């Protein structure tokens, strides 16, 4: 005879089991959807390229070797894959600069928004989200219309007689940066604003009362308190900026490859799917390493207040 | 609801709204974007009571990759001649024997038995074209019948030249410019090609496809381009001229094939036959602005194309035209490496 306790335990066990069984399909789908495609990419990176795209089911480490090393086309010597390194470096640099630029613009914007009255705050928040209503490509083309040789900026400059010939902005690195900063700015503003909104401004007043300079208040009070928002914003901007495709090709003119173009080339005209897969995974590893370093770094100095 | 019932439901909804519920059949065409004349399609639909659906692709590689995965539901595709042998070799297309179709008599003799499809067992010509150099003569008045505009840019055009980033076309042009043969495995030639390209790049402003709009707006003053695109540019601005490079230029054609997995084979065959009719071929040309391989179509051609220098290759330039072919995979591999180095 089972005691009441045992019965209760058995019922509980059954309950736990049923819960697992019921959620299993959903968990399985999420697990497969998250890992399945990645797994295919990983497997493909160790196969041999087919003659006209696709892969041959034949193990080969060549793709991974050619991510980092290259055999010179002409004298057959093996050396560091300078072209790949240059392209990786260009993309990383662009992502870092974009993050800094959006932070420089986004921090004051968020501060401005958070210091408005409750009612107007919502209006500002609403205005920040407006760009999201249109497609990324259309926003990028809008920037193009503004900065091109016969665009708004150059027309005004020419009319005012400030310049005699149009300033070439389109197809330069500046153009890419303008476009990237514009496109990713809301992703920086929103998390910072979320932190800033919770900030107790009495602390700022207290700082001033204790004769802190404005800079000191910013550095010692405001910044540490909104740091989680800054970190979240930086991550949200850095990761997509690293893989940006549309903005650099439309505004940069496609002369210099970004990481994403290099990967696309392998799946298209280059017909080297394994190399494309290996490059994609390399990008993921870079992002992961950057994130770990960033989060750990931020965690160390992140002192909890209030 | 699985995807099949979803598609079926959507298809039914479409049929119900389009008022073509009594169509005798369907035809699903997979073609390059902005390339299929709506008027000719309407005519085909009316004539055979067939509902036509068109889906776009943007490159030969996209189309090949997608069809190879199977289950596309497309009946017809329009690969370039360089790719047709791959489609045949990979068993993606079926032998519809257009060479025996009723309208085949209209196909110009030089297109009736091409190397990429001997005896026209699979394909029907859709459009023909060339790759050359487009120059805005307001910006540069010198001789422009050379790839030198792109690879050794004259001072007036420095920083204003665009290159359409079609890898095979650009490397073909560069090989011609340094005096080699296409698909060469001669390392000294390929090295010259790489050095020429790398040295030329600082004078380019961009590598973009969007030439019609950018040449029109003046962002570019010269570009490498396809002839049909050049024609559209000239119609918008008469100062823009198309040139056939004297070092040699590429000839290409796109061809209609029927997929092995096609569900509407008979309708697809009807379509292949239909577009070999002179009037219909001219209708297609009037839209995509390229020449076609159908004799007798000239009398139906729009007036602005009849003797357009972009469409009708001048006698003097005829000899330099050369059909582009698909290079061996190992050569293609070298191309990709040169291309990566060019854009690094």
**Approximately how much helix is present in the residues of chain A?**
over 70%
| Helix and strand element order of chain A | HEEHEEHHHHHHHHHH
Question: Span between N and C termini of chain A?
Answer: 57 Å
- Which structural class best describes the helix and strand composition of chain B? alpha/beta
Q: What is the architecture of the largest domain in chain A at the second tier of CATH? A: Orthogonal Bundle
State the CATH class of the largest domain in chain B. Alpha Beta
Care to describe what's here?
Helices cover 73% and strands 5% of the residues of chain A. With 306 residues, chain A is mostly helical. The longest helix of chain A is centred in the N-terminal third of the chain and has 41 residues, at 4-44. The radius of gyration of chain A is 26 Å and the shape is flat. The N and C termini of chain A lie far apart (57 Å). Chain B folds into two domains: 3-128 and 252-306, Periplasmic binding protein-like II (D-Maltodextrin-Binding Protein, domain 2, 3-Layer(aba) Sandwich); 131-251 and 316-343, 3-Layer(aba) Sandwich (D-Maltodextrin-Binding Protein, domain 2). In chain B, strands 1, 2, 3, 4, 5, 6, 7, 8, 9 and 10 form a ten-stranded mixed β-sheet that branches. In chain B, strand 1, helix 2 (38-48) and strand 2 form a beta-alpha-beta unit. Classes of the chains: A mainly alpha (306), B alpha/beta (344). The interface between A and B is large, with 34 and 38 residues.
